[in-house]
Design brief:
heterodimer; A: alpha/beta; Adenoviral Proteinase, Chain; five-stranded mixed sheet; two-stranded antiparallel sheet; disordered N terminus; B: alpha+beta; Ubiquitin-like (UB roll); six-stranded mixed sheet; 7 strands; 14% helix; globular; Ubiquitin-like protease family profile domain-containing protein (chain A); Papain-like_cys_pep_sf (chain A)
Chain lengths: 272, 107
């Protein structure tokens, strides 16, 4: 640990131009702003995780999701408006409140303070989940479709591990939240026993023990680049590994690191 | 107790001081740890929340970059003030522990 704390540590990477490969863990590299969301602070310790082939943390996940959305907004503003990205602590809080309250009205009452947007206006809602030290991703496609009979929405789970991880409680908890939300804002009651189509998306699987966070970021970015084709395939359960641009996965961690370095340089130039 | 910063006073219990509680300059905030324990802080509306965050980290013996402070789900930046975030007396700040995930246990 002590060696990682030293910004002067020699780099084992071939990036010879980078004189200071690790950052002071307590320094703020930058504060990243994505329109419609509160800023997220990236610290030296976050950078070092990425650099050191360590597990990704909430800061890196939330930052890069929002970076992808900003990138999309610059290419196609109307397309970007279709997305909502929850903070990675949203599901943790929801799951915690859910397990501590028998009174389910209380669950919604608490969580409604965390919902600052009209969820039914979005086509895609992404919910990053960190459970048992593992990242996976839940996507709600067409949330407003839950009002239709039968429901015309879909809950998709992205998980880069090959073994069967349990996602059923996340799917159920998010479905119930959406039902409570519809009741609150539309005054429409939907039975909690309603069947919502859901699936586990077929995606490439990780080859090591640390990259699940990198993979979910890659899935979000790839989805945003090709949503019209991928949405249909996900709903029809027809995705294949090749739909997810697997060739760029081995260098994804490095790509994210380079983006952080660029923003860091830009941010420091601005603050000088 | 001696390490408590003077400008951010943990007040122990909610509404402990009725006289001071009526002051509009100060605000009482409830900080809820990930262990669900609550700690109450009295802070000026114009003081940066960094003071509260640092005081909490110190009392819990935690590194600043291992904790996240959320106000109604929004991440609090150290330079934010209660005034800026339109916080009201008695509002709660959730403290979350950094989330990390690889798949050590599940592979």
């Amino acid at each position: 640990m002590s060696s990682r704390n030293s910004p002067e540590r020699e780099s084992i990477s071939d990036d010879s131009t980078d004189q200071s490969p690790f950052r002071d863990p307590d320094s703020e590299l930058f504060s990243y702003r994505c329109a419609g969301y509160s800023p997220i602070q990236i610290m030296g310790s976050d950078y070092n995780r990425l650099k050191d082939d360590d597990e990704l943390n909430d800061n890196l996940i939330v930052f890069y999701m929002r970076y992808c959305l900003e990138k999309l907004r610059q290419n196609n503003e109307n397309d970007a408006k279709r997305y909502y990205l929850f903070d990675s602590f949203f599901y943790q809080k929801l799951s915690d409140v859910n397990s501590r309250n028998r009174n389910k009205d209380k669950v919604y009452e608490t969580m409604s303070r965390w919902i600052k947007v009209d969820l039914l206006e979005f086509r895609y809602i992404f919910v990053p989940v960190c459970e048992d030290q593992h990242w996976y991703l839940v996507q709600i496609i067409n949330p407003a479709g839950i009002i239709s009979n039968p429901p015309d929405c879909h809950i998709a789970v992205y998980d880069s591990i090959a073994t069967k991880f349990k996602h059923s409680s996340a799917v159920r908890i998010l479905k119930n939240l959406l039902i409570d939300y519809v009741k609150d804002v539309k005054g429409k009651t939907i039975s909690k026993s309603v069947k919502i189509p859901h699936s586990i998306v077929k995606t490439p699987k990780q080859l090591n023990t640390v990259d699940c966070g990198v993979y979910i970021l890659h899935f979000i970015e790839t989805f945003m680049e090709n949503s019209s084709v991928l949405e249909e395939k996900i709903i029809d359960k027809e995705t294949e590994d090749d739909n997810w641009n697997p060739n760029s996965l081995p260098t994804k961690r490095q790509t994210i690191l380079e983006i952080i370095k660029d923003i860091e340089t830009e941010y420091q130039t601005q603050s000088c | 107790m001696s390490s408590t910063p003077t400008s951010v006073q943990p007040t122990g219990q909610s509404g402990e001081s009725k006289k001071e509680g009526t002051s509009t300059e100060h605000i009482n905030l409830k900080v809820v740890g990930s262990d669900h324990n609550e700690m109450f802080f009295k802070i000026k509306r114009t003081t940066q929340l960094k003071k509260l965050m640092d005081a909490f980290c110190e009392r819990q013996g935690k590194a600043f970059n291992s904790l996240r402070f959320l106000y109604d789900g929004e991440r609090v930046q150290p330079h934010n003030t209660p005034l800026e975030l339109e916080m009201e007396d008695g509002d709660a700040i959730d403290v979350m522990v950094e989330q990390t995930g690889g798949c050590i246990q599940c592979c």
